[in-house]
# Entry
Amino acid sequence: IKIDNAILKRFEQKTRKQKASKKISCRILIVCEGEKTEPNYFKKFKLISNNSFTYEVHCEGCGEGTMKVVNTAIDLAKKTELSSQPYDSVWAVFDKDNFADFNAAIEKAENNNINVAWSNEAFELWYLYHFHNRTTQMSRNDYKKAISDAVNSTGKWPKKQPYEYKKEDENNYNIMNTYGNIRNAIRWAKQQHLTFTDKNYSNQNPCTTVYKLALQLLNEDKDLIDAV
# Structure
């Protein structure tokens, strides 16, 4: 599999910048479909550090479709497998959109030990779960208004102009966690995910597994901690 040169260049630059003296207990790689929306969000998670466990997170935006994201994640994971700093957890993050290979991409990722934080229909479903327990289908075109209304309905938005959701806003992590609640998002997203028992992921709407990645970034994935 050939990685896009721009992605590989960014990846190698970040690797070179690592401090040799920094002790890393757990390394996580996140490869995202979007170049800005998802990376902007995940990069805002504070790196968790204590006396016994330290996380290091690399986040790459592909700007490509589902299978490209998975292939890139597989290749970057293999690139470090035999190095002194292999990844302990690798994630592919993508939406259903209109991709016909959505199910196939998830299955390929799972067959290659790549975790998947997928959303049907859009990543913004994860944002909405910070405010509401969404259990009915919604078009991706409706998420902007739904998130905007959710923030404004809290009555806490400080600016004179009503809040309007912007997909690539670098402050989306702070906005969702200031006016919404990530604990509710994890609980409601997991609850909805567990209502589905088959593997026809493209029909599981609404649904997102981003909560699983969030738990890792919050240092609350016991399986990962025990494995490392």
